[in-house]
Design goal:
The protein is an alpha+beta fold. Helix content is 59%, strand content 19%. It has a two-stranded antiparallel ribbon.
Length: 122
């Protein structure tokens, strides 16, 4: 059971890394342009893009339903990103049976909860 908790943490960190790689944000940045006649600083606002390695995925899939499960919503990513690690672990421990199939939704919910905690606390 401890090994499944460790698997949930590792899987959660993988989801977090993928989610962070899909990041694309545009924020307003205050830039100093010089001084006015009465020695007051003059500013203007520019857009600054913050891009992850897979930022095009967010730009492409922002309006698509499947994007939330791929990289847009950290708790939602638990459904898609848990398939391979969970079943690879079950295969490596020779535990592929009906109990593993029935425990899989519990694993997804636990991973989703850990992802939610990571997203809101970090």
């Amino acid at each position: 059971m401890i090994d499944l908790l460790i698997l949930i943490l590792i899987n959660s960190f993988v989801c977090f890394g993928f989610w962070n790689a899909c990041l694309y944000e545009v924020e307003k940045v205050k830039v100093e342009t010089g001084y006015l006649e009465n020695f007051k600083k003059q500013y203007r606002y520019e857009d600054k893009e913050i891009k992850g390695v897979l930022w095009r995925l967010e730009k492409w899939g922002k309006d698509k339903f499947i994007y939330k499960a791929i990289g847009g919503c950290l708790p939602c990513m638990a459904s898609l990103h848990s398939i391979f690690p969970y079943w690879a672990y079950m295969y490596s421990t020779n535990a592929i049976n009906l109990n593993a199939l029935l425990f899989y939704p519990v694993y997804v919910l636990a991973l989703s909860g850990v992802n939610f905690l990571i997203e809101n606390k970090l």
